């Protein structure tokens, strides 16, 4: 199995619809031994069955990344239970509601600071704190989205945060490569997760991506999970600093997929049918 003998931590599972869950599940199926985290008591109760399913009952730790003391405690717990670890999955992002709607120029400094701290700096802080217990051939993986490269309606502040996150991946990859640590990101197509619920018109976004992606479908958690597992495994031993798209090719499209009627008027194509 591809992850046999690998040990790691997955941060940011909210439920079984989370992309992080898909990655953890793929790693478990390939033999990985993991720990997972929960944000607070409410999530602890909700995630207890998930921890049991993933074989993490005794390695189920609290970690609110806005509290540096909890990141330090996480390092101590991992060192106690695993010694060294081989991978980190960072699936953490947050922006206040005001940052996901309205005019971008009206976003407050407070909302901006929160989004950048939780969504971007937390990756740096986690890697910095856990670096002493990372093995010589380890892999760090975070999650991005196309809204960090191009404008996406209703993504607003989170788009800026994802842009910063993607550059953080590249700078960390250069900095940590000499230590044998690889750092990559997956940019997944839209998936109906708990985080996606905060994005306006998300149902339309799903339809749009399905219509215009070259493969004419949306991605699944399992598909993204398998790609994540690849980036955490030795199969990707020479891959670092990459933003790996798992979006059925949507990111390559320069124009929408359209059809023209007899009068030459364009119509958006939904699943190959003009509407």
What is the gyration radius calculated from CA atoms? 19 Å
Low-confidence stretches: none
Main beta-sheet annotation:
7 strands, parallel
- The helix content, as a percent range, equals 25-40%
Could you give the order of strands across the largest sheet?
A: 3-2-1-4-5-6-7
CA-based shape: globular
Tally of individual helices: 7
Average pLDDT, all residues: 92
The SS-based structural class is: alpha/beta
Q: Work out the oligomeric state of the chains in this entry.
A: single chain
Termini separation: 47 Å
Strand content: 15-25%
Report the count of strand segments.
10
Q: Note the run of SSEs as H and E.
A: EHEHEHEHEHEHHEEEE
Characterization of this structure:
The chain starts with 6 loop residues before the first strand and ends with a strand. Helix 1 (19-29) packs across helix 7, helix 3 (68-82) runs parallel beside helix 4 (109-130) and helix 4 packs parallel to helix 5 (156-177). It has seven helices and ten strands. With 275 residues, it is α/β, with parallel strands linked by helices. It is globular and about 70 Å long. The strands form two sheets. It has a seven-stranded parallel beta sheet, with helices on both faces. Strands 8-9-10 form a three-stranded antiparallel beta sheet. The protein has helices at 19-29, 41-53, 68-82, 109-130, 156-177, 202-212, 221-232; strands at 7-11, 33-38, 60-62, 85-90, 134-144, 181-188, 243-246, 258-260, 266-270, 273-274. It is 39% helix and 19% strand.
